Amino acid sequence: MSQLAPLLFASALVGGGFLALHHRQPPPPVQPPASLTSTLASPGLAPDNSSDPLLEALRSDLHLQRQLILLFADEGSLKGKDLARALEAGHRLHHDRRDLVHQLNGALLKLCAQASAQRDPEIRHLLGWMEGDPELLDLDRLAFRDTLRILQHGLLKDVTAEGLGLKARLTRDLGTLDRLEHSVDAEYRKVFGGAGQAPLGRRELWEAYVAQLRRRVSIQELLAAVPEAQPAPTSPARPGAELDGSHLPDKVLVLSFDDGPHRLYTEEIEAILLKEHVPALFFEVGRNLGTENAAGQLQLSHLSALTEGLVQAGFVVGNHSYTHAQLSKETGAPLDLEIRETDQLLRAIPGAHSQLFRFPYGARTAVQLKALEAFQLRSVLWNIDSLDWADPVPSSVADRVLKTIAQEKRGIILFHDIHDRAGKVLPILIPKLRAEGYTFAGLDAEGNLRLPKP
Ligand SMILES: [Zn+2]
Q1: Containing domain of residue 53, as a range?
Q2: What is the mean pLDDT of residues 72-77?
Q3: If you average pLDDT over each of 8-22, 217-231, 304-318, which comes out highest?
Q4: Cα(417) to centroid(ligand 1), Å
Q5: Cα-to-centroid distance, 448 and ligand 1 (Å)
Q6: What residues pack around ion ligand 1 (CB closer than 5 A)?
Q7: Which end of the chain is more exposed for a tag (fewer CB within 10 A), N or C?
Q8: Which residue from 329, 285, 269, 358 is spatially nearest to 101, judged by alpha carbons?
Q9: Quick one: CA dihedral 260, 263, 266, 269, positive or negative?
Q10: Higher confidence at residue 211 or residue 49?
Q11: Which pLDDT tens digit goes with each residue over 205-214?
């Protein structure tokens, strides 16, 4: 399969470390941090002998989804230290999964651009695995939506008989996923009814899936790798330097979307927000926007047009680092580079630069907060976490947000625009929260609250 792409997924599924990714292209200007893969538990999937790097990447992605589901399977009973541990371990998995999906999507799009003779057998091979491999559990397939959507996107303009045939199959597969998601979502709604209501019955489909996962996947090593004492978030370097939403006026909410722009989901979310007249913040990862070449010139990527579109539509955009590194571990020049590269890329996109910065995973100490000051940037965190990256069930994500809002009464809500979850949750949440008297506000480029005009 070496003809597929300049990317080679080197996957050693036994013994961990299966996310190592090798580039043949020149490295980007900022090196991603050392992989956290040594913390991954031993995979519950048998090694694949086909030596197909794309299939290996899909299996790795599935394994990460399985681990995330198990981490939060007992979310309701997780408290204090246990919850902090699950969140920390989840962030590590999420970090690996983001990198993997980023590279996988690039490789899939390259595959789609190839001649039918090379492309079609590989795509059929991947679809065959996703549709019918006996090692897969039914609800595992919830992990495949993004891959199917990317393939569909990659084949969009292909009107050959072969291309149309593949697209028909992708549409069928996505239909199957819709039905699967609908059944597990409907089950959630039936059991929980709504925020604050006592559960009626059990989530049978979901609980059976979790029970099957527990027999296949262990998260003990993953949890054991998380240090016991978590550093408590430090106080800001100067008062007012950091916003987290907890001091907003009563019943005021600010939506934020991290990790984009994404070729499929950013515009889907933008369209929902525009239709509902809801302002929002988008925190962009610099490497999605472009690179700086050896001569120091910025080269914007085609995805940067999505960011420009957000700005033109009236949304405020902020800096979310260049590689999405855990910046609490960075100091000096590497830290400055993570901040500066994205700062410069945003300055190169008309109207996109703001003073807003969001630390990946919210990970920062006084050192990193101080570094922001040199760039005249302001840290914006959140107090309402949707955990949309860990939960494939839209109603469950919506319920989590509603429950947290019921406690907090105000705040900044964290979503992501790199998968389809937020786009499914917003149409449930926005009308419901408005009916409860909440107002959706925005922040301006300096971080000042902007309430909607009455
Ligand atoms: Zn992020």
Answers
A1: 7-192
A2: 84
A3: 304-318
A4: 10
A5: 22
A6: 258-259, 360
A7: C
A8: 285
A9: negative
A10: 211
A11: 999 999 999 9
What is the CA(87)–ligand 1 centre distance, in A? 14
Same domain, 181 and 259: no
Q: Is 202 helix (H, G, I), strand (E, B) or coil?
A: coil
For residue 263, pLDDT beyond 70: yes
CA of 320 to the centre of ligand 1 (A): 7
Would you state the structure tokens that stand for residue 275, as one six-digit string? Answer: 């239709």
Token code pair at residue 332: 């000096």
Q: How far is the CA of 361 from the centre of ligand 1 (A)?
A: 6
Q: Is residue 429 part of a domain?
A: yes
- How many angstroms separate the CA atoms of 244 and 447, rounded? 11
Residues of the chain above pLDDT 70, percent: 85
CA 259 – ligand 1 centroid, Å: 5
Tens digits of per-residue pLDDT, 403-428? 999 999 999 999 999 999 999 999 99
Q: Does residue 73 fall inside a structural domain? A: yes
Cβ-contact 100, 60 below 8 angstroms: yes
Query: Final residue of a domain: which of 161, 177, 192?
Result: 192
Structural domain count of the chain:
2
User: What does the alpha-carbon distance between residue 300 and residue 304 come to, in Å, rounded to a whole number?
Assistant: 6
* pLDDT for the residue 14: 26
Using a 10 angstrom Cβ sphere, with 0-12 exposed, 13-18 middle and 19 or more buried, the burial of residue 140 is: buried
- 72 CA from centroid of ligand 1 (Å): 19
Residues making up the chain, counted from first to last: 454
For ligand 1, the distance from its centroid to the CA atom of residue 338, given in whole angstroms, is: 13
Identify whether the C-beta of residue 43 lies closer than 8 Å to the C-beta of residue 13: yes
